[in-house]
Specification:
The protein has about 400 residues and is mostly helical. It has one domain. It is about 60% helix and about 0% strand.
């Protein structure tokens, strides 16, 4: 009997997936969020309600640093079998009720205990991280073709109040990624706060527009339950109203904070994933196809286990339907110095982010201005600071 996680290709190549059981690390994220309230119930102390946040920003990046990176890939010959194994799909799917359950549990906790402002805020922000984690699950499932996976994706996006991501990401962001027209691709010189002010409203507007046009093209009414944008809005509304009715008005600020902080996690990811990278515009007026070098990549082990290889973002954008367990590392890609857990707080300090990433970006594009998605208002200053030149002038110098 063949051991679970061992795959034999039609040509006889044997592959043992050493990561198979480590994907269970993903459950640690929502379960750690529950630990704080449980400890508080045993011994009331606001510190417990901030433990998860400390783990997220301090412990997880340190673990990533010491565990290092994994550049191994499964052989292409076994990828069809790897993606057909129901074990991997089960792990992603079962995370949906786990995330929703944790969200509901902490809402109950907030309504059941007389928390201080600090404790209430810690519980709400912790829940926001779980909503953001749920967005990652929705991201993985939303790219799948089965109706089961797509509905599970919509369900897990509801607590984060970001269900429009289901429409916007697949049919908006993936189409326009690494271009100035994409609100979910950050520009060189753009800090995360300016990016958020541009990305959040424009992502909602783009999702609404995409669905409106899709249904109109089919001769259907855009104002019906066939509209997937409307579906997701109603699902979030039903979820939030239900919690408010069950647990009382005390959870309303909690839901608003948790919802916003969930969105902020996705905004943080979007900000770092394509910073400054630009696809070439062709003579036809269209952009070249997304390539692995149009995304920032990270092979840090722990955060990739926890986030279902989200950080192998380069392969994901080049091959959107590829399942998490078979996403690949490529040599010589734009690479982040740490995993997402470590890079988020760097992004929150603009001068530090620019110091870390601008020179890295310039190295990746070989100083070619034509390969940089640059903020127009900072263009002249950045060209002068880094002596950037367009590929045309570089070719003239070479000639």
């Amino acid at each position: 009997m063949m051991r679970a996680g061992t795959f034999i290709s039609p040509t006889g190549e044997v592959y043992v997936d050493k990561k198979r059981h480590f994907w269970l690390v993903s459950f640690m994220v929502p379960l750690l969020a529950v630990a704080g309230p449980l400890l508080y119930m045993l011994s009331p102390n606001d510190v417990f309600l901030w433990l998860f946040i400390a783990f997220w920003y301090l412990l997880f990046p340190v673990i990533d640093y010491f565990m290092g990176e994994d550049t191994s890939n499964p052989p292409e010959s076994v990828v069809p079998m790897l993606e057909a194994d129901p074990y991997y799909k089960f792990i992603a799917r079962i995370n949906v009720p786990v995330v929703i359950g944790v969200f509901i549990f902490i809402a109950w906790f907030v309504s059941s205990y007389d928390l201080s402002v600090a404790g209430y805020l810690g519980a709400a922000l912790t829940t926001g991280y779980i909503g953001g984690y749920g967005l990652n699950i929705g991201h993985e499932l939303g790219h799948k073709k089965t109706s089961t996976d797509q509905w599970l994706a919509k369900l897990v996006l509801a607590p984060a109040a970001y269900g429009h991501f289901f429409v916007e990401h697949n049919r908006g962001h993936h189409k326009m990624v690494a271009t100035p027209e994409d609100p979910a691709s950050s520009k060189m010189g753009e800090n995360i706060y300016s990016f958020a002010a541009r990305e959040l409203p424009n992502a909602i507007a783009r999702a609404a527009k995409i669905e409106h046009q899709r249904l109109k093209d089919k001769g259907l009414s855009p104002y019906s339950l066939k509209n997937e944008f409307i579906q997701t809005v109603l699902m979030t509304g039903a979820f939030y109203v239900s919690l408010a009715l069950i647990f009382g008005a005390v959870v309303i600020p909690f839901l608003l904070i948790a919802g916003f902080w969930s969105m902020w996690q996705l905004t943080s990811a979007n900000y770092i994933e394509h910073y400054g990278l630009l696809r070439k515009k062709l003579e036809s007026g269209r952009y070249e196809r997304p390539q692995p070098h149009h995304s920032w990549n990270s092979n840090h082990i722990f955060s990739n286990w926890a986030l279902f290889h989200l950080q192998r973002h380069s392969d994901h954008h080049a091959n959107a339907t590829r399942a998490y367990q078979s996403l690949r590392h490529f040599d010589d890609l734009p690479s982040l110095p740490n995993g997402y857990f470590g890079m988020f707080p760097v992004a929150y300090i603009p001068w530090l982010w620019f110091k870390v990433m601008d020179k890295r970006l310039i190295e990746v594009v070989d100083g070619d201005l034509d390969r940089i998605n640059i903020l127009p208002s900072k263009r002249d200053a950045l060209i002068k600071k880094y002596q950037l030149k367009s590929s045309y002038s570089l070719n003239e110098v070479a000639a």
